[in-house]
């Protein structure tokens, strides 16, 4: 029985299980090392809940107006090699046709590789 496993630190689900050397939550997908007290670990997710990581490829899910420009980033624009950062715009990336900028994770969807 898995009663001895701690609840998920991200969502408090009691349904945690062991996955190799980590503990995992089937409800939110959070994984952590047993005994770790890393409460400061921030998990950045895309618009549908997929966990994002540095180097991922994402697509834009809605037209985004670019401040200071008359054009906008169109739906379906593929952005490669993202970098996660702290702040309101939590993705730092180079958007084709626009250059370096920050995006919010709620406006992108991770591309399956």
Number of strands: 11
The major beta sheet can be summarized as: 3 strands, antiparallel
Strands in their spatial order, largest beta sheet:
1-2-3
Strand content: 25-35%
The radius of gyration is 17 Å
CATH class of the largest domain: Mainly Beta
Q: Indicate the mean pLDDT.
A: 86
Order of helices and strands: EEEEEEEEEEE
**CATH H level, superfamily name of the largest domain:** SH3 Domains
What does this structure look like?
The structure is a single chain. This protein has a three-stranded antiparallel beta sheet, with no helix packed on it. It has 113 residues and is an all-beta fold. It has strands at residues 17-19, 22-24, 31-32, 58-60, 64-65, 72-73, 78-79, 83-84, 91-95, 99-103, 108-110. The protein has two domains: 7-40, N-terminal domain of TfIIb; 57-110, SH3 type barrels, CATH 2.30.30. The chain is elongated and about 60 Å long.
List keywords for this structure.
N-terminal domain of TfIIb; SH3 type barrels; about 110 residues; single chain; 11 strands
Give the SSE layout.
Layout: E1 17-19, E2 22-24, E3 31-32, E4 58-60, E5 64-65, E6 72-73, E7 78-79, E8 83-84, E9 91-95, E10 99-103, E11 108-110
Antiparallel strand pairs: 1-2, 2-3, 4-7, 4-11, 5-6, 8-9, 9-10
Briefly, what is this?
Belongs to the YjdM family. The protein is mostly beta strands and 113 residues long.
